[in-house]
Amino acid sequence: MIRKVASPILYRIRVRPYTRAVSSALAAWDLTPRRIDLLSWSENLVFRVDIGQPAPVVARLHRPGTATEQQRHAESLWLADLAETGVAVGRPLLARDGRSHVLATVRKDDERSISVMAWVEGIPLADLIQSEPGVAPKWRRAQGELLAEIHNHAEKWDQPAEFAARRWDHEGLVGESPLWGRFWEVEVASADQARVLVDTVTEIRHRLLALGTDSDVFGLIHADLSAANLMVDGADIVAIDFDDFGYGWHAYDLAAALFEEAAEASFSSDRDSLIAGYRNVRTLSPASEAHLQLFLLLRGLALMGWLAFRRDLDLDGSRTQFELLDLVERCERFLGGEDPYG
User: Is 341 among the domain residues?
Assistant: First the structure.
């Protein structure tokens, strides 16, 4: 998502410090940019950089505070090994001194980590399905297969000693300090809405502790493999944007892959196709499948925390308020023993 201000001139002024920072930092990769265009402005600022060669590169300017440098380097290590073993993922490019990330100065008091990825051809699966709805089952199966390949690799991979990753576990999702914020304390919530959120968190905590973290249900996950983070080029599909990766439940990965469609009429078909594709490659544990609806709700709650504490993406709070109404209704259904996404 690119959040633009009212005037194109003001927009260019707002983006200019970031493009300058990217341009300077790319010297660490021995790259001389000819043109830098902003592709998305959400968790990170993502740029297409033309370098006078047939293929451009992608530069990601990371938002401060979202991950440690060790965790960002771990993302590069995992991606490199995934690509080496034939899993279709975006490939990181190392700086000339071997680093995966360097610091870029945006302003005197604003230094950010930057990484560079090889360009991935194609169009986002989300755009393809929107323009050609009839192809959705085929590509949802492919999405499930690719997700299963990622989980298989994670289970077998002998991780380097320096590897470190966040944990989308009980503490990371509904602990005292969730990775994306205490969503039950969102400012726009009424007292009644806050009570529903707190009751939901309490119930989810019990269920996650009972689910456990054995390897058949828990491991290293992408954590955001939605249709927007899959590129389709002909018969090929490639996973990108591992920025949120970490240790978590496989069912959370499935829920993240499906969440954007959870309220759509196509959801049942999308879910069945995704699971069928997953099972073509990897066994899906009964516990993971049984908890899918719970993790869909958890995904919605986590995203509420992410949005509520990102004022730059919701300046007046209206988007948070709108999504809160829907989320609280689903929490009430969950607490009443109903399927929150049924």
Answer: no
Please give the pLDDT value at position 49.
97
Same domain membership, residue 286 and residue 167: yes
Q: Are strands 218-221 and 57-62 parallel, antiparallel or unpaired?
A: unpaired
Q: Tell me the residue range of the domain where 182 lies.
A: 123-335
Burial class (CB in 10 A: 0-12, 13-18, 19+), 10: exposed
Tokens for 90, please give them: 């975006």
**pLDDT, tens digit (0-9, with 9 covering 90-100), for 172-190:** 999 999 999 999 999 889 9
Residues 72-114 have pLDDT tens digits of: 999 999 999 999 999 999 999 999 999 999 999 998 888 999 9
Alpha helix ranges (H) inside 34-85: 69-84
Average the pLDDT over 198-210 and give the result: 97
Q: First-to-last CA distance in the chain?
A: 28
Of 249 and 67, the structure prediction assigns the larger pLDDT to 249
Q: For residue 134, give the CATH number of its domain.
A: 3.90.1200.10
Residue pair 120/240 in contact (Cβ under 8 Å)? The answer is yes
Q: Is residue 2 part of a domain?
A: no
Query: Into how many domains does the chain fold?
Result: 2
Distance CA 213, CA 36 (A): 43
Are 44 and 63 in contact, with CB atoms under 8 Å apart?
Answer: yes
Token representation of residue 223: 């954590």
Q: What is the CATH number of the domain that holds 59?
A: 3.30.200.20
Long-range contacts formed by 322-328: CB under 8 A, 24+ apart: 324/186, 324/188, 324/189, 324/193, 326/263, 327/300, 327/301, 328/189, 328/193, 328/196, 328/197
Please tell me the chain's helix, strand, coil percentages from 3-state DSSP, rounded to the nearest 5: 50, 20, 35
Packed helices 250-258 and 292-308: angle between N→C axes, nearest 10 degrees: 70
Ranges of H-type helices in the chain: 8-25, 69-84, 125-131, 136-156, 170-174, 191-211, 250-258, 267-281, 286-290, 292-308, 318-335
